[in-house]
User: Fold this.
Amino acid sequence: MTDLRDPHGTLRRALWIGGAQWAGKSTVAELVAEAHGLTVYHYDWHDARGHQDRRIARRVAEGVPTADPSPDLVWSERSPAEMAAETLAGFPARFEWALDDLRGLFTARPAIAEGWGLRPELVAPLLDSPRRMVVLVPTEEFRQHQLRTLPRAGALGVAVRDPERAQANRVARDRLVAEDAARQARRLGIRVVEVDGTHDARAVAALVAEQFAPWIGVPARPSNSGAGPGGFGSPG
Assistant:
């Protein structure tokens, strides 16, 4: 009998990359997928573009305004702690939308699902092994490097009255959300990889591929080589 919660077995076979903004999740997922013939689900792309109708429907059901709040309210008029709390509180509903997308996907090989909304505490109940997930978080030095070198990281891209304050709030919010992701992952025995920039994206992808070796057929190196120089984490 078909399991309507996972009709094509996609969730059962999935591999997960969660973590922080600007840690290289999308790039790493694509490198692993390209090397091993896998499919990638980009959470951020779907969440920003494909889920707006669900977001509006949810607001209608809750009896709140359907229009997005003003950029100043979102980015400037609340503290980073309030922004982080709201973001974390919204992840469970958004995760269910991502699961619906994945349930409709069939691939004989595992799909890699990546994105900051794929939270360890939400993904963990789906896992038959914590090794199916890795959480990437940037060190503070690498976060600052990304802010300096990635245009989409260094500026909001929306009109606000105080761009400097809004960007500072965004960075502080993202730091809090990242810290929570790492904390939750370690609590659940899911590996946390701290990305500090001393390894390029292909090296980080190779590390993640080793993590996923039982499901993608990558020969694993000895376990004591999994955390080399560069601040790569180990299971918490």
The longest strand covers residues 133-138. The longest helix spans residues 163-188.
